Amino acid sequence: MVILDMRGNIVLVNSQLERLFERSRADVLGQSVEILMPERFRGAHQNHRSGYFSDMRVRPMGSGLELSGMRRDGSEFPVEISLSPLVTEAGTFAIAAIRDITERKRAERKFRDLLESAPDAMVVVDSDGVIELVNSQFERMFGYDRSEAIRQPIELFVPKRFRKKHVGHRKGYTVEHPIRPMGIGLELFGVRKNGSEFPVEISLSPLQTEDGLLISAAIRDVTRRKLYEADIQKLNEDLNQHAAQLEAANKELESFSYSVSHDLRAPLRSIDGFSHALLEDYGDLLPEEGKGYLERVRSAAQRMANLIDDLLNLARVTRTQLQIRFINLSDIAEEVVRSLQEAQPERQVKVSITPDLMVDGDPHLLRIALDNLLNNAWKFTSKSDTAVIEFGQLSRVKKVRTFYVRDNGVGFDMAYVNKLFGVFQRLHSVSDYPGTGVGLATVQRIIRIHGGRIWAESKVGVGTTFYFTLSGESNGEQNDSAGRR
């Protein structure tokens, strides 16, 4: 505290002033008050002081200019001053209360630095919605210089059609002023200086200060996200439409498949049956060449029936919903091999199956897959002197498990590997190795439905190995023949 006479001379100070300015009262009593401020401000301050004494009134702390004090050693510090007139019998005096606001200024600088470093546009408004502070992101987002934004109502940055409602929302928030996270509340829009509008999300935080309630708002332009959301919604609508169309097509295909199956099976059974009757009843009357023709007719009819069965199985695999269970692939493989041995007990085949290969999968579909792979191995080793078939798992170098079915059969030329999993694609003649060319296509679909991959390696006269995984990618160490298709 300091008391000044009409000439601006110091007539009384307290001990807090001595500590603040690091001066004894003997040094300052009788001196002009300008001794307490930096020299560069003294001339202007004399004019302000003279003006105050000509119109003395209470001036609250914080009103007026940005002021600085100066200590005895010349160091400066920011101050706020409140002024009050004091009328006594000895004359009129002015009482000045001086406050060091160094810490508050430092805090304000940190606060401003935080605002500037924020990734979102930041704005601070008072309880009346008048802007006190903005950051550079706010300037860029709305196209205003901060000097144009400060002291303006926040509704200036809201589209006109929303301003009246916004005032109500703002006043309601001022009463309760909870922290409101980003994305909560209404669909909001901002308006730039050029009049263009854009969607925003706003988070609100109250700030209690000496001057009253301030509200900090973080504003985020969500134009790009809204466009993405619209695109995703459109994609979802398209997907739903395509799914409905696919479901309808599948139902039509299923109906068609069974209709074709029924309509084809009847004439095929007739062809096979009448051909068989001809051979039994009139075989003695037919020349050998005629008998041969009838046998070929029967064989073709039977092959066609098998082909129909395989195509129906392939169609069912495509439409089947997975029923995932924890199953033992080794047990399934042993059952398949046992059936093959019972069907051809004369075959001497050395079979090796790694025990207890446990996986999560559909037991029915994986039975079909292993049945096809092991049948292939059994079939293509039929002309080997010492047939060998193996089912196992590669060493786990990476996380994804890789299984294999290996044989030492006839093999095939890897130049044709891209045809291997195609429907009706065969690498050997029907006369040498019977089949419809649908089995491996069925296996591939089953493996893909499980999220895995299948590929093969082979060498003519040495044998073939089929590799497959049941989830994710293969471990990358094998040659991905199927992947190059």
How would you describe this structure in keywords?
485 residues; alpha+beta; Beta-Lactamase; 4 domains; five-stranded antiparallel beta sheet
Description:
By secondary structure, the chain is α+β, with helices and mostly antiparallel strands. The protein has four domains: 2-100, 2-Layer Sandwich (Beta-Lactamase); 105-221, PAS domain (Beta-Lactamase); 250-318; 320-484, Histidine kinase-like ATPase, C-terminal domain (Heat Shock Protein 90), CATH 3.30.565.10. Helix content is 43%, strand content 22%. It has a five-stranded antiparallel β-sheet. It has a five-stranded antiparallel β-sheet with strand order 7-6-10-9-8. A five-stranded mixed β-sheet has the order 12-14-15-17-16. A hairpin with a 5-residue loop joins strand 8 and strand 9 (197-209). The model is unreliable at 472-485 (pLDDT under 50).
**Approximate shape:** rod-shaped
CATH class of the largest domain: Alpha Beta
Radius of gyration: 46 Å
What do we call the CATH topology of the largest domain? Heat Shock Protein 90
Terminal Cα separation, in Å? 90 Å
> Strand portion, in percent?
15-25%
Which whole number gives the mean pLDDT? 84
**CATH architecture term of the largest domain:** 2-Layer Sandwich
Low-confidence stretches: 472-485
Derived structural class: alpha+beta
Strand tally = 17
Roughly what percent helix? 40-55%
**H/I helix tally:** 12
Topology:
Blueprint: E1 2-4, E2 10-13, H1 15-21, H2 25-28, H3 39-54, E3 67-70, E4 76-88, E5 91-100, H4 102-117, E6 121-126, E7 131-134, H5 136-142, H6 146-149, H7 160-176, E8 188-191, E9 197-209, E10 212-221, H8 223-282, H9 288-319, E11 325-328, H10 329-343, E12 349-353, E13 358-361, H11 363-380, E14 387-393, E15 403-407, H12 439-449, E16 454-459, E17 463-468
Parallel strand pairs: 12-14
Antiparallel strand pairs: 1-2, 1-5, 3-4, 4-5, 6-7, 6-10, 8-9, 9-10, 11-13, 14-15, 15-17, 16-17
